[in-house]
Amino acid sequence: MEHQVYEQLSFIKIPIDEFLVDKFSAGGFCQDEARREIEKRYAGVLEITDKFNRQSVSYQLNKKEVLHSWLKYKEGFSADLVNMLLDEMGAKPGDWVMDPFVGSGTTALVCQMRGINSIGYDIMPVSAVSIKTKAAIHRYDTNEIKALIRDVEALSVPLNYSGCTPYIRITQDAYPEKNEKFLHYIAVWRDESEYSENAKDLLTLCIINSLERCSYTSKVGQYLGWDCRSKKVINANRLRAEKGQKLLPPKYVRDVILDSKETILEELRHVLMDIEIIQNSGNDNQNAAIEFMPASVLYKLPELEENFLTGVITSPPYCNRYDYTRTYALELVYLGLGEQEVKDMRQSLLSCTVESHSKINELKIYYENIGQRARFDYIYSRIKENAAFKEILSALEERKKNGDLNNNGIIRMVEGYFTELAFIYAEIYRVCKPGAMVAFVNDNVRYGGEVIPVDFLSSSFAEQFGFKVKKIYSLKQKKGNSSQQMAKFGRVALRKSITIWVKES
Fold first, then answer.
1. What's the topology of domain 16-123+290-317+367-502?
2. Is the pLDDT reported for residue 149 higher than 80?
3. What residue segments make up the domains of the chain, in order of their start?
4. CB 199 within 8 A of CB 140
5. Looking at residue 154, what is its pLDDT?
């Protein structure tokens, strides 16, 4: 496949004022001077672009993309967006680009197709399976995959089979009994088969990408949504009825809960077609390295050498309380994680849930152990100097006292989220070479009537560590507020942005 040349991100003439916030604190309840100051400071680099939309900064465009559609990862972004940003940074074959939050691996895979080396991190095992399987695209034996498909077609679970798919508390009764047994049976069959590791990995990814559609669950917001036909909801309603409580609504996550065997086969046929397309395309950049580590970037980035990255393209978990260990619980459990391992992973992820605890003491010990305590002290002192950040935390404390926060863990989450990201920004600056470009996709948020300008606040941290803020691209479509926020505090339109920072010479 020939590389498509993308134009530099452009902008359209929409009044910038429509995308700026005049009051960060609903009703003027809290001080907002520091937030208004950074809004004024970065208004001059804000551009409203027509070159990307909510589809390109999400998984939507990847649904039909060759290779990138192998894993439905709602929090990802499109290959089109990565190509545009690579063009804008002027990345060439042989350069190094980082994605500190790999997700489904779109940045790394687009880089590989263009002969660009990539380095990335992600603690979620789903990411490890995705990147390993997709990166092997040129190494698959299509005849072996065809034989695998024939064998899966012939699979039949014995009538007396007692095996069941493992579960933890939040995934119990997630599948119809037939699917539950088949998903366990095919995993055992896969492990005992004589197929190559590449073929087994491919089958694993196809199974993983099938789980949700074969279950009574759906990924919605912060948790798993449940179908009223599931045992979990049926039993919950029985107990509610006994207590005279209101029943859970008759909600269907999908019209038909799909058959697991047929869904896995559909996935296998789909990836086989993609493999044949790519292997016959003549585009083979296997020499481009993909260095992936299944680990937290917080504890790996500080060990990298200085001044070698051409750029960074990423989308971190948003500061929106979404818990990836719950929404991807089916996949995590299928990959072997137990109850405690899932809980531990929840704390290891970037702080974006109300259950997250501060990592600052762990970070201090880590930096001491690698002989970089002075660097820790420098980064942390700069974070604590940020006036807008201090104002936001103070405002949230005031909202807590006033009873405006629906969960007091929001304060700890926000503090941890930006503290951890600021450490990452500082270390990215160190490992970027002069002229490197960094692109972060993120959403602005609002809690307890207090707007947090994630894009401008992050840019202020980036400037503290040496970056120049080149552009802040914003979607034309602004983000809404929760119904609870609007009912109590009114509506404030929030930006969804791509911040572009440059390390100058």
1. Rossmann fold (3.40.50)
2. yes
3. 16-123+290-317+367-502
4. yes
5. 98
